Amino acid sequence: MSTIRALIQKMRSKRKLYAQLLFTALAFFLMVILSYAFMKSIVNNSLERNAEGMFAFAESQIESELLELKSMLGNFAQTVRNMILRGAGAGVLRSYLKDMTDYMYTGGLRMPDAHRLFGYFEMSADGPVYINLLRLDLLGDAGPMEWPWYRIAVEAGGDVVEIQPPGGASSRNAAIT
Length: 177
What we know:
Blueprint: H1 2-85, H2 90-108, E1 118-121, E2 129-132, H3 148-155, E3 162-163, E4 175-176
Antiparallel strand pairs: 1-2, 3-4
């Protein structure tokens, strides 16, 4: 009888040990699940804030570059206007456009792709002149009053405006006039 009691006593002590091990494993598993859920929320919130900050930074950088380009083109337009009022001809205007194109292309602006200048000048000393440094045919057979970029520029009343790129929406470059 004493051997049976000893065996039962031994089984009870092992059962407690197995119960403790099972409880510890379940507690650890629960801790892992709760930690995952808690950290997932923290990481998700952090990623959302960082993404919003990156988008805000990219947006402000784009706006800054556009403002810089518009400011430069406003000064450029004023200079061309003054040159025309002082009697500059097509050769002088072409030379100035080429100089500005070279300046923009060699890094005068932070936008190395912004280096294509063109224009139609009605009041130059040589009469109406179209200067195209793009090497694209923007005119076709139409006259200046029919060119979309020309009409938009005239309607802007002297302000610098952004237009759809010549060549359509499939073109990767924006045009500012």
